[in-house]
Amino acid sequence: MTHAIDTDFLVALEIRDHIFHKPADGLLNRLLDEGHELAVAPQILAEFVHVVTDAKRMKEPLSMDDGLARAEYWWQAREVLRIYPDGETVTTWIAWLRDHRLGRKRLLDTLLAASCASHGISTIISNNGADFQVFGKFSILSYHS
Fold it and tell me: Label partner for 126 (CA 20 to 30 A): which of 32, 43, 99, 108?
């Protein structure tokens, strides 16, 4: 089964002093041991680099070079399926933003959801499940303990 990765999961995996690092790492190892595939969208990597290099969000932010290196690692990982937004994805994204009356803080989550939908992915790994429930199409794998 393929599970899409939300930005919060990637941040928890990569930042060792993150409150959810251990449970995120445990979930990752379990999924890989069971033969699951992970899906990553480019917008998730962009948001990841934005977050982990931000001194207002991180006690010890990564340098831009280190943030990009970690993003590239995930983009190149053999366990990762790359999901790209295509024309259908963008049409769905706009429709969902409009139909569900979502604001600007929901742009990237909605684009991830639309990307997942257009690639037939129905599970998203996130501690922000409420962000995706509005669409009525996804199961959420949470990793907080």
Answer: 99
Find out whether 24 and 12 touch, Cβ atoms under 8 Å: yes
Instruction: Check if the beta carbon of residue 133 is closer than 8 Å to that of residue 100.
Output: no
Strands 37-40 and 2-5, bridge-based pairing: parallel
Q: Measured between alpha carbons, how far is 61 from 121 in angstroms, rounded to an integer?
A: 31
The residue whose two tokens read 């996130």 is 126
Q: Domain locations in the chain? A: 2-82, 87-141
| Dihedral (Cα; 53, 81, 139, 70), 10-degree rounding | -20
- Residue 60 to residues 9, 25, 71, 115: CA-CA distances in angstroms? 18, 20, 17, 31
Q: Is 0.70 topped by the overall pTM?
A: yes
